[in-house]
């Protein structure tokens, strides 16, 4: 039986649920996506960073409440806008998975931390890369990695300037581990797909504003992972009208 995953990213929630960020009421848009997810009942939610814009406890509490209401497990990682300590305090217990490595139905899911204090760009660092190399060396089942900053160029120069600064080291590492089938990221506020060797790199639209096409509504990505290592993925858009109809 396949595992059904929903990736949602770059929510940029604010303490005030009616406040706007660049003309985008981020809480309402994220609420619309959670409403859409209720109809799909994913097995696992991947929240790939910039969950809060202001790092406020209220924003993480709202996110925790939505996840609890959805009723599935979740993995939450920090983006450059987050406050990792506050995120961990509020979203660090069930239904959030508080482990970096999670094995489910023949797949391994590994969450990476590319957050750097007071910086917009990302960095994994030698210690984390060594750790990842060891973990990948111990198990060869199909593996999905998730991190906030895209490790590959997105083609948008100003975004690539603030991407994963040790991306080349990361790419060299995973090239030695052919079981890494998928690498998911946020940060770019746009979808993309790239393949390198046996690995596919997927970017995801934000639930907040999209950088490349501001007129697009909130988006998210679904994934179905099969035990034989194959997978399917799709982008979904949630019109603003459905966001307005939902509770915040
Ligand atoms: Fe973001």
From TrEMBL:
GO MF term list: hydrolase activity; metal ion binding
The keyword Iron belongs to this UniProt entry's keyword annotation: yes
Domain Calcineurin-like phosphoesterase: 4-190
Keywords: Hydrolase, Iron, Metal-binding
The keyword Lipid biosynthesis is assigned to this record: no
Similarity comment: family membership: Belongs to the cyclic nucleotide phosphodiesterase class-III family.
Name of the featured protein: Metallophosphoesterase
């Amino acid at each position: 039986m396949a595992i059904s995953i929903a990736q949602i990213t770059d929510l940029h929630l604010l303490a005030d649920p009616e406040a706007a960020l660049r003309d985008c009421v981020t809480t309402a848009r994220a609420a619309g996506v959670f409403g859409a997810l209720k109809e799909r009942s994913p097995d696992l939610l991947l929240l790939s960073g910039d969950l809060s814009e202001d790092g406020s406890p209220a924003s993480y509490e709202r996110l925790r409440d939505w996840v609890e209401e959805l009723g599935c497990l979740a993995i939450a990682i920090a983006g450059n806008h987050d406050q990792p300590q506050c995120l961990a305090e509020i979203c660090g217990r069930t239904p959030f998975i508080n482990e970096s490595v999670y094995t489910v139905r023949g797949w391994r899911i590994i969450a990476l931390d590319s957050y750097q204090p007071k910086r917009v760009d990302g960095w994994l660092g030698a210690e984390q890369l060594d750790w990842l190399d060891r973990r990948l060396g111990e198990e060869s089942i199909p593996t999905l990695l998730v991190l906030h900053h895209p490790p590959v160029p997105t083609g948008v120069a100003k975004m690539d300037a603030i991407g994963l600064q040790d991306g080349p080291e990361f790419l060299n590492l995973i090239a030695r581990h052919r079981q890494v089938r998928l690498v998911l990221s946020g940060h770019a506020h746009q979808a993309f797909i790239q393949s390198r060797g046996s690995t596919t790199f997927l970017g995801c639209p934000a639930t907040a504003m999209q950088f490349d096409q501001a007129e697009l509504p909130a988006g998210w990505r679904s994934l179905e992972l099969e035990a034989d290592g194959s997978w399917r993925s799709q982008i979904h858009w949630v019109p603003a009208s459905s966001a307005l109809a939902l509770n915040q």
